[in-house]
Design brief:
It contains nine helices and no strands. By secondary structure, the protein is mainly alpha-helical. It has a domain of 104 residues. About 5% of the residues have low confidence. It comes from Chitinophaga caseinilytica.
Length: 211
């Protein structure tokens, strides 16, 4: 009996230590997303690789896959060579689906998948705009039903309206209305943890400054 109790105690301590190491590693990497110097293709790619290594080591945590995909989709938006966008977006989608497999349907993941859809439009806006614009919009509506208090839903809806030509349903004024809703939601929003998604408030304010 004593040996069983000793084993259970050892297992509990080891599990707690592993969780502490995971939280510390994630917190360190997530904090890099607060730095403007991180937002260039090379740094985002490197950070995505780090998150993916954490994900592969943990195997049961969805957030490392989420952040690995988030870094890649931002890399896709910044990539000048359009022939490289689809491979980057494809990998981001694969990582996002791994997060969905672990977490299940979730507002943050629907927002991420919406971003990935938008990243594909820049390759050829004339032929891809309708398809991926519709996919992005549907994912954001899904994200809203999953969590109507998620500010990133309204940020991304507002951004999409602002950067879509009026001939295709875009509207800067309606976009800014949604951005103001996002800003109100950010004020009340409380992330679930130190490493939960919290991005977007600063970017919302920058978009609202645009003419």
């Amino acid at each position: 009996m004593k040996s069983i109790l000793a084993y259970l105690l050892f297992f509990a301590v080891a599990t707690a230590n592993a969780q502490d190491r995971y939280q510390a590693a994630m917190k360190q990497q997530v904090s890099l997303l607060d730095s403007a110097s991180t937002f260039n293709p090379a740094s985002l790619n490197a950070l995505s690789n780090t998150f993916e290594r954490i994900a592969n080591a943990e195997q049961t945590q969805w957030l490392p896959y989420y952040y690995a995909a988030y870094c890649l989709v931002n890399e896709a938006f910044m990539t000048q060579d359009k022939t490289k966008v689809d491979p980057i977006s494809d990998k981001a989608a694969l990582l996002a689906e791994k997060a969905v497999a672990l977490k299940g349907e979730d507002s943050e993941l629907s927002c991420l998948l919406s971003l990935i859809a938008v990243s594909r439009i820049a390759v050829d806006p004339m032929t891809r705009g309708a398809r991926f614009g519709t996919e992005s919009a549907e994912l954001l509506e899904k994200a809203k039903t999953q969590n109507p208090e998620n500010p990133r839903v309204y940020l991304l809806q507002g951004q999409n309206l602002m950067f879509t030509p009026e001939a295709f349903g875009g509207s800067k004024s309606k976009g800014k209305e949604l951005l103001n809703v996002a800003l109100q939601k950010f004020t009340a929003f409380k992330p679930e943890s130190d490493i939960a998604p919290r991005w977007g408030e600063v970017y919302t304010k920058e978009l609202l400054k645009m003419p």
